[in-house]
Each structure stands twice: as structure tokens, then as C-alpha cells.
Specification:
binds zinc ion, 17 helices, ten-stranded mixed beta sheet, about 525 residues, alpha/beta, binds 2-acetamido-2-deoxy-beta-D-glucopyranose, Alkaline Phosphatase, subunit A
């Protein structure tokens, strides 16, 4: 039998088997019955329990004992690195909770695999709540992991004195808090921002903007909330003309629409008559602008001081929606260029690099896209670690917040993560391994008229845009409040162990590279 036919045969057989084993619900007061359902004995697959992707020997004690010993040896060989970090790179997987990167291992070969950053020597957990809410968004979290203080949901680069949408408080510079990108540039280093979202989106804006509403990406948005005569600057304007934005030397992402007036560019959304990209070019003939991967590849860095790359009107496309001829560079390609460009500064650099579309895919319950974006994010980090030295470059990888994303059931080893579990719900319809607590897919998977679930395996077809079941209907799936992991490699990486508040992260990065943010003291001065 061909591999494909065999897989189909096994899947069909398993499906029949699982369905036949659907159990009647336990009586409410039958505790033994209910207990037996908590950790059920699963039905055997036709060829035994384990599908073909089994690791040789992983059913022996030796395999696991040796694995344990090897890990101890790796730890024993690890030396504390207390050098000063010349360079710091912060990688952010937007919305990359623990369930998300754990599930993504399945795409790179199986549960036994590690994403590049999961091999980093030190890990910790970051508590992501905001000053006003328990479950955060990308705006207040960017203020925490870039500027070092917790703030109000929806605000960026402002202290917690400022509530969302407070126009007057945004203008009061006493309320402004500055990011580690500024701390680094104040110390003579270069700084850059790279993202797969609009470069005016909440996470990258944390590096350079002060705004009481993450939606104030252009002047039209600001005027809508603060009035036509407001002097509050939008995020795009702050990138080109702001105190920090105007000094960043490497900027890449999407969001062209927010930089140009609608009368000057058909997809522009500004209304103040400005073309900020044109203004950026006119500031200096050594300010380079690129809008395609080819232009980026052909750019001769020796002739330029600053690079702005804007590759789309809004977010960059999902990696799975692109092909080899795509106009947009991959996150790995942008990362390589950023390091090559910023390494020219002898004093070092700080770069913020975001895999921003993990989050947007989850909001649409599109787990295939989300997990693929994690794999792309992992490739970018692998490239960064290869291109830099662990001796002088601290790399920190984390997420801003988690998602209402569940990785559950009791799928067999070797199972497709996007497939069903052997669990047998009372309605005899399959249960998927991946699901969401809420989101737009609810009515696709639940027949509201007949008040019953539809068979999810008939709705998950293998398309890159496949959605996964949500338990409650919401236009957009929500973030999660669980801690996110922090992975660190390089000088002072050992500081990043433990469970700590998210706003601690930039203080630790500043400590490692002797930056003065007013709170830390350089350890190796
Ligand atoms: C600016 O903000 C600070 C701190 O929140 C406050 O004490 C001060 O009164 C504000 N100034 C104005 C002019 O509103
Ligand atoms: C404007 O947006 C539309 C729809 O996304 C797109 O087809 C068109 O190419 C865009 N125009 C330009 C000049 O990029
Ligand atoms: C880049 O520009 C420099 C200075 O103008 C020149 O010496 C170099 O040959 C150029 N490199 C390439 C690959 O064109
Ligand atoms: Zn989000």
C-alpha cells in the first residue's frame, strides 16, 4: 500500500473505531465513572498505539536515562557569561503562549524536537498582566518589555497615569516613558525595529512612540478621537519625525497606508496632506528606502546611514500565503540584513524583531497559520544566533501575552497536530487536538439551529486558512492571561531565570549591556 493510501486507511479505521467507542455520559453522582473518564484508557490503533514517526529506542529506559545524563552534562559545561553585552537583540513572538510554541514542535518533526530558541540555556516566565487589566494587549506589554514599566491596556510609551484615549495626557511629556532603543542610542549604539506587522502596530511602536491609543497609527485616527485641531502626533509621524524614531537606523515592516495622504496614494489613509516616506527620503540622501525584497537585496549598505523598508499597505502577508517570488522578504531575511547593517557600529546595537502574525492568525482561530509563523520566527532566531557571538551578543526571546488556545485531548505520538484526538465526546463527534476558548469559528463548528456540534474533521480540510473550533462566538479570539516564557542566550542570560514581572525584561537587558536607564548600575564598568 502506498504511504498516502495507508495513512488514509488507518485514519478511516481509527475514525470508525473511535466513533464506535463513544461512551454514554456518566450519572452526575457516579464518581467512579467520572473519575474513569478523567484519564481514559485509549482505544488501540490498528497497528498498535504508536504511529510510524516513533523515535528508535524511546520505549527503552536507556534512551530516557541517557537523555537525562546528556542534559546534566550540557548544564555542567555551561559557563556563566558576565561579559558586557555589546549587542542586544529582543525577539518577540506576538501572542506566542506556551501552548503555541509547544504545539509548533509537531511541525518540525515531532514533540521531541526543539525550536531554535528552546535550546537557549536559560529560561524564565514573564507575568504579563497590565496595571488595569488581568489579560493584556500588545500595547501595554510593549511598554513593559521595552520601556520597563507596566501601564494601561491600549497605551504605548506612557506611564500608568495615562488612561487609554486621553489626548491631553499624551501631550504631557512628564507621562512619557522611553524604551531601551533610546537608552541604547543614548549610549552611542545603533538601534533598529523589524516586524512582520505594520511598523506602526503596537509592539514595534513601543520602541519609538508615545500614544494613549494603539489605533492612532495615522493623523486621521488621532483626529477622530482628539479633534481636528489636535497636536497629538500619530505613530507613523513619530517614526519619521519623533525623538527616537528619527534616530532609528534600521526599520522594516508593513503599513505604507499610514504614511501617505489618501490624495497622494490610492491606499493612503492620512488626511494631513503628508507623504512621510517622501519626507524621510528628503531628510538625507543617505536615508535609503526599499519596498521589495529585490530592492533590499540590491541595496549597497556602504552608501547609506539609515534603512526604511515598507513592504505592504498593512501587515506583511502570512508566510504560508507567499511563495519564493514574493515581493516581501521573510523574517529571517530581514533579521540577517538588520544584523549585517547594524553591526557596522563599533559601539554595538539594540534590535527589536517581531514575529507579529502569530497573534493575528490566532485571533482568526487559524492555527495552521499561527504555528507556521512560529516556525518562521524560530528560523530568524537561529540565523541571529549564527551571525552573532554568544560572547558579546545577548539574545532574548519572549512573547507579549498568550492566547485562548488549547492543545489537548490525548493524541497519539506521531499524530498530525491539526488532526483529531482519540477522545470520544458524548455526541460521538470527534474532538480536535487544537481548539480555542472563543473566536469567530464558533458558528462554523456549531450548528446553532439544531444545537449540535458539526463533525470538525469535515471542516478542517488542510487549507492554510483552516480554522479550529472555538467554544464561544466572538468576532476576534482573545488573548490569554497565562505567563509567557522567556529564553535567553549570551552575556548575563542567567539573569532571565525565575518568574518575574514582564517590565523587568528591559532592566535586565540594560544591566547586561551597561545601559543607563536610571534604575540599573553597570556591573562591569
Ligand atoms: C503632567 O503630568 C504630571 C504627572 O502625571 C502632572 O503632575 C502634571 O500636573 C501634568 N501637567 C499638566 C500641565 O497637566
Ligand atoms: C491598493 O490596494 C489594493 C487592494 O489591496 C491593491 O490591489 C492595489 O494594488 C493597491 N494599490 C497600490 C498602488 O499598491
Ligand atoms: C558598494 O558601494 C561601495 C562604495 O561606493 C563600492 O566600493 C562597492 O563596490 C559597492 N558594492 C557593490 C557590491 O556594488
Ligand atoms: Zn492580539
Amino acid at each position: 500500500m502506498s504511504h498516502a493510501r495507508r495513512t488514509l486507511f488507518l485514519a478511516t479505521l481509527a475514525c470508525v473505531l473511535y466513533t464506535a467507542l463513544a461512551l454514554p455520559p456518566c450519572a452526575r453522582d457516579d464518581e467512579d465513572c467520572r473519575e474513569s473518564r478523567m484519564h481514559p484508557d485509549l482505544p488501540d490503533l490498528p497497528q498498535g498505539r504508536i504511529l510510524p514517526r516513533k523515535i528508535d529506542g524511546d520505549d527503552t529506559n536507556d534512551y530516557w536515562r541517557n537523555q537525562g545524563k546528556e542534559f546534566i552534562q550540557t548544564k555542567m559545561a555551561q559557563k556563566l557569561n558576565t561579559q558586557k553585552a555589546k549587542n542586544v537583540i529582543l525577539f518577540l513572538g506576538d501572542g506566542m503562549g506556551l501552548t503555541t510554541h509547544s504545539a509548533a514542535r509537531n511541525l518540525i518533526g515531532g514533540e521531541e524536537q526543539y525550536l531554535s530558541f528552546e535550546k537557549f540555556p536559560y529560561t524564565g516566565l514573564s507575568k504579563t498582566y497590565a496595571v488595569d487589566v488581568i489579560v493584556s494587549d500588545s500595547a501595554n506589554t510593549a511598554t513593559a518589555f521595552l520601556c520597563g514599566v507596566k501601564a494601561m491596556k491600549g497605551t504605548i510609551g506612557l506611564s500608568a497615569q495615562v488612561e487609554r484615549d486621553d489626548c491631553a495626557a499624551t501631550l504631557n511629556t512628564t507621562n512619557h516613558v522611553h524604551s531601551i532603543a533610546k537608552w541604547a542610542m543614548d549610549a552611542g549604539k545603533s538601534a533598529g525595529v523589524v516586524t512582520t506587522t505594520r511598523i506602526t502596530h503596537a509592539s514595534p511602536a513601543g520602541a519609538y512612540a508615545h500614544t494613549a491609543d494603539r489605533d492612532w497609527e495615522d493623523d486621521t485616527e488621532v483626529k477622530g478621537d482628539c479633534g481636528a485641531d489636535t497636536t497629538v502626533q500619530d505613530i507613523a509621524y513619530q517614526l519619521i519625525h519623533g525623538e527616537v524614531g528619527s534616530k532609528l537606523s534600521f526599520m522594516m515592516g508593513g503599513g505604507k497606508r499610514h504614511f501617505i495622504d489618501s490624495k497622494l496614494y490610492e491606499n493612503g489613509t492620512r488626511s494631513d496632506g503628508l507623504d512621510l516616506i517622501d519626507q524621510y527620503k528628503k531628510i538625507s540622501d543617505r536615508n535609503a528606502f526599499v519596498e521589495s525584497r529585490t530592492e533590499l537585496n540590491n541595496l549597497n549598505f556602504s552608501n547609506v546611514d539609515r534603512v526604511l523598508g515598507i513592504f505592504s499597505d498593512s501587515h506583511l502577508q502570512y508566510h504560508l500565503e507567499t511563495d519564493a517570488n514574493s515581493r516581501q522578504p521573510t523574517l529571517e531575511e530581514m533579521t540577517r540584513k538588520a544584523i549585517e547593517f547594524l553591526s557596522r557600529n563599533e559601539e554595538g546595537y539594540f534590535i527589536f524583531i517581531e514575529g507579529g502574525r502569530i497573534d493575528t492568525a490566532h485571533h482568526d482561530n487559524m492555527a495552521r497559520l499561527a504555528l507556521d509563523e512560529v516556525v518562521e520566527f524560530s528560523k530568524a532566531i537561529n540565523a541571529a544566533r549564527e551571525l552573532t557571538s554568544e560572547e558579546d551578543t545577548l539574545i532574548v526571546v519572549t512573547a507579549d501575552h498568550s492566547h485562548a488556545f488549547s492543545y489537548s485531548g490525548y493524541p497519539y505520538r506521531g499524530n498530525d497536530i491539526f488532526g483529531r484526538t482519540p477522545s470520544t465526546p458524548g455526541d460521538s463527534k470527534p474532538l480536535m487536538t487544537l481548539s480555542y476558548a472563543n473566536g469567530p469559528s464558533f458558528e462554523k463548528f456549531y450548528d446553532v439551529t439544531n444545537k449540535e456540534r458539526r463533525d470538525p474533521t469535515t471542516l478542517v480540510t488542510g487549507d492554510v486558512h483552516d480554522q479550529f473550533p472555538a467554544t464561544a462566538p466572538l468576532d476576534s479570539e482573545t488573548h490569554g492571561g497565562d505567563d509567557v516564557a522567556v529564553f535567553a542566550s549570551g552575556p548575563w542570560a542567567h539573569l532571565f531565570t525565575g518568574v518575574y514581572e514582564q517590565n523587568t525584561i528591559p532592566h535586565m537587558m540594560a544591566y547586561a549591556s551597561c545601559l543607563s536607564d536610571g534604575l540599573t548600575v553597570c556591573s562591569t564598568a
